[in-house]
Amino acid sequence: MKRSAILAFGLTALAASAAHAAFLVNYAGWSKLTKTDKLAYVRGLNDASSVVDTGEAANAMQAAIVRGRMTCLARDQVTDHMLVALIDTRYQNDPSARDLPPMSLFASETFRICRQDIDAAIEAARPAPAPEPVAPRAPAGPPTPQP
Predict the structure, then answer these.
(1) Looking at residue 5, what is its pLDDT?
(2) Which of 36, 45, 64, 98 is least surrounded by Cβ atoms within 10 Å, i.e. has the fewest?
(3) What is the reported pLDDT for 50?
(4) pLDDT 10s digits, 98-144
(5) CA dist., res. 20 & res. 9, Å (int)
(6) For 48-84, b where at least 16 C-beta lie within 10 A, e where not — what string?
(7) Domain boundaries of the chain, sorted by first residue
C-alpha cells in the first residue's frame, strides 16, 4: 500500500511537470522552466519521438529515422541533461531560434548530432531496386523470306 501511494505521488508530480511544460511555444516559456521541468520535458519528447507506428500504416522511413536516432543516443550515452544543454545552447547561440518551440530545437539538434546514424538507417531501410524488365522474345519460327 505504501509503495502504491509513493508511486501515485511520483506519477502525479511527473504529470504536473509534464502538463506545465506541454504547451511551450518559444524560448520565453522554456526559460521559465526549472531544471527539473526541463529534464521532464526532454524525457517526454525523447520517449514520444521513439514510438513508431507498427501497424499497417507504418512508415519504413519514419522507423529508420527513429532507429538511427536511438542508436546514436544510446551509443553516445546522451543523457537528458545533455539534451537540455543542446536546447539551452541553441537558444543562447541563435537568437532567431527563440521564436521556435523547444520541441523543434530538440528535433533539429538530435537530427544534427545523429545524422550519420539516421542516414545509415534510412539507406538500410530502402528497398532493393527492382530488376530491369526483360524484353519478351519473339516466338521462334521459320525465318521470314527476304525479297
Answers:
(1) 39
(2) 36
(3) 85
(4) 999 999 999 999 999 999 999 999 999 888 887 888 777 766 666 66
(5) 17
(6) ebeebeeeeeeeeeebbbbbbbbbbbeeeebebeebb
(7) 13-125
Over residues 7-51, the pLDDT tens digits come to 333 434 444 444 444 579 999 999 999 999 999 999 999 998 888
The three-state (H, E, C) secondary structure of 78-106, written as one string: CCHHHHHHHHHHHHHHCHHHHHCCHHHHH
Confidence (pLDDT) at 129: 81
Please say whether the beta carbons of 103 and 45 come within 8 A: yes
Q: How many CB atoms lie within 10 A of CB 9?
A: 10
Among residues 118, 119, 17, the alpha carbon closest in space to that of 72 is found at: 118
Whole-angstrom Cα distance, residue 16 to residue 32? 15
Residue 74 in grid coordinates: 544510446
Distance in angstroms (rounded) separating the CA atoms of residues 132 and 28 = 56
